[in-house]
Input
Amino acid sequence: MSVKEKVSSFALDKAINYVSGDPETNFPKLLSLIDSLGINSFEKASQEIHEVLDDPECVWYKFTMDLWRDIDNEVLKSVMQNFGLKAAILGGQKQEALSEKYGCNIPMAMLIDPTSACNLQCTGCWAAEYGNKLNMSYETLNCIIEQGKELSVHLYLFSGGEPLVRKADILRLCETHRDCQFGAFTNGTLIDDEFAREILRLKNFIPIISVEGFEADTDFRRGAGTFAKVQNAAKILKSYRLPFGFSCCYTGKNVDVIGSEEYFDQMIEWGAKFCWFFTYMPVGKEAVPDLMATAEQREFMYHQIRGFRETKPLFTLDFWNDGEYAEGCIAGGRRYLHINANGDMEPCAFIHYSDSSIYEKTILEALQSPLFMAYHERQPFNENHLRVCPLLDNPDAIVEMVEKSGAFSTDLQDPEDVHDLADKCRDKALDWGVAANELWACSDNCSGCKARVSA
Output
């Protein structure tokens, strides 16, 4: 750790301790102290923080104060150190420098599948197609993180399969790399008191529970009894004052539920602090294209999520519809990359093509490979950042990149031709293009948008 990192870490630790005693009184005092230092680079952030702290009626004021009250202080400190400071602030600066040095994308985060095994068999999930036979060794997982840290990556998310099938190895990685923030997209059914006690001890792991709505929709896709287990997992995590969130895939069948005020209120009541929203992708020959959301449904979610950001104390990310904030697609190593349980390094977790294996190339070599460089050179895929995806929104882009790079399908049971995959998305891409262009031309604050949210 550099001198700058040590000083920054020490200062952040002291600041968190100061605020924790009485956040409503001490947070504004701390901000005033920082303002008095006249740090130019902090001026914009300070203004945004003031907008929250100076207005007790603001929903984000409540969200901020609830964090200090609801989350274990040492866990909160670890998250701010590993995610806020090392992964986002210091890591981001280094990643920009490395990207310029090597002429390729350098990610902020890595999404890793330690296993293809899963204790559920959800409708439309590609993980089951891998046959529940693939597992990366602990040594390989550790090597990935070691390589990532050399690129200043301090954020690692596990998916699968069901990553908590590998609980022991995940906890071991958290123990070994205390300077990293870990998380996992999990069905939640394997979370118990013993596991909660361990992540409370380690402080650098956050569960992200996948759920499809209320009981009927969740059990329809994930199996009978799953919803009850999700509720129990949330209850356990909340009782240990641990941060957790939800991952929601909205489809043509459940969008009215996922986007409802009742559902947002339920997530908050369960104790979630954030939610990542995804839309269904028809990846794999066994996918169900009828589950894809229509343009009208996707626009409904666009307005619902943005509207509730002004009224609900829940941090939300809309993986597709928030493209304007990231200025386009974040895959291809621009913000993240995916490594599946077979060791294939993929630009995106939702598009299963690769030209690099972790067993044959380093992560940096993969980022400089033809497929990842095709992403690097083509991003953004559309000037309208509400049409960010090279598959769902711009299907010709994925065809061109796969063909140009010579990438192969990573579906181990039934490889899918990229033309067939793209064809499944063309009609939806055209429909969404019309809606997205109207939204993009419209100011976020215009009366039309507000009227739609109210509706």
Q: What stands out?
A: The longest strand covers residues 181-186. The first helix runs from residue 3 to 21.
